[in-house]
Write a structure and sequence with these properties.
By secondary structure, the protein is α+β, with helices and mostly antiparallel strands. The protein has helices at 3-17, 22-29, 52-55, 80-91, 130-143, 184-193, 228-240; strands spanning 36-39, 59-64, 71-77, 97-103, 106-111, 122-127, 150-156, 163-168, 175-180, 199-205, 208-213, 220-225, 247-253, 257-258. The protein folds into 2 domains: 3-156, no CATH class; 163-258, no CATH class.
Length: 259
């Protein structure tokens, strides 16, 4: 976003803050048919002594595949086009499309009960904080009469693309996982496993990770992908090649907040 565009957006956000276009916010934040775009004020970037990081707008996006229900996200992109493109690519589905995009704030998506033979439906929202984005996403789903709707994922545009780690004990089948930057993820994963013979068996960045376990102690399967469904499928396939009755023990995204 160039300086002029950013200035116009911030002026628009000020009108929002003053309550002059509040009805428009509620309407746009809950619209789900097309790509919903939101821009939030990033106050640190407006200060005279702001550094380059704070002066740069950041974008996040969430995409979904209507036919499969797979959803994926992106964050920390300086280009809105790159944010939506990566979210779509992570879905890894022909019909994947970005459904919400936010600058400097939060995106959220809500899903409900899926009817067999029909496309998935959703509600999306954006806002300056997680609570607002999730509130609008849930309201959007409820407006569309989606049964048992609940927020499944939210992400901050300015969140760093971090990593995740899984620790595993072959002698007990106990595991632990964590997310974070640098060495924090593997360190916390080992702590969460709480077994003396635990080892880090997976460490990835900016993706979904999954661990599957089966009947045989010490046998496991790992998967990582741009979305949860694919990560779990990979983990189950690998685990079933080593033992029987594979089931997902844990799956998580290294970024964002899942429910």
């Amino acid at each position: 976003m160039d300086y002029v565009s950013a200035k116009r957006w911030r002026r628009w956000v000020w009108l929002v803050a003053l309550g002059l276009i509040t009805p428009v916010i509620a309407r746009v934040a809950r619209a789900d048919d097309d790509l919903v775009v939101g821009v939030c004020r990033w106050e640190p970037g407006e200060r005279p002594d702001a550094n380059l990081e704070d002066q740069t707008d950041r974008w996040s996006s969430i995409a979904i595949s209507p036919s499969t229900g797979k959803y994926a996200c992106s964050c920390e992109w300086t280009s809105r086009d790159n944010a939506t493109r990566q979210a779509r690519e992570k879905c890894d589905a022909k019909d994947a499309k970005a459904v919400v995009l936010c600058c400097n704030g939060w995106c959220a998506i809500a899903l409900g009960k899926h009817e067999e033979g029909k496309d998935w439906e959703w509600g999306v929202g954006w806002g300056p904080d997680r609570q607002s984005a999730e509130k609008y996403a849930l309201e959007g789903a409820q407006d569309r009469k989606i049964a048992d709707a609940k927020v499944v994922f939210s992400i901050n545009a300015r969140e760093m693309r971090t990593g995740g780690a899984i620790a595993f004990s072959k002698s007990t089948n106990k595991w632990g996982w964590s997310t974070g930057g640098g060495r924090s993820a593997p360190y916390k994963a080992m702590q969460n496993c709480k077994e003396t013979d635990a080892k880090i068996i997976a460490q990835e960045v900016d993706c979904w990770m999954a661990l599957a376990l089966g009947d045989e102690t010490g046998a496991y399967g790992l998967g990582h992908a741009g979305n949860r469904a694919d990560a779990e499928t990979i983990a189950l396939k690998e685990c079933n090649s080593r033992t029987k009755n594979a089931k997902i023990a844990v799956s998580f995204c290294t970024n964002g907040v899942e429910h």
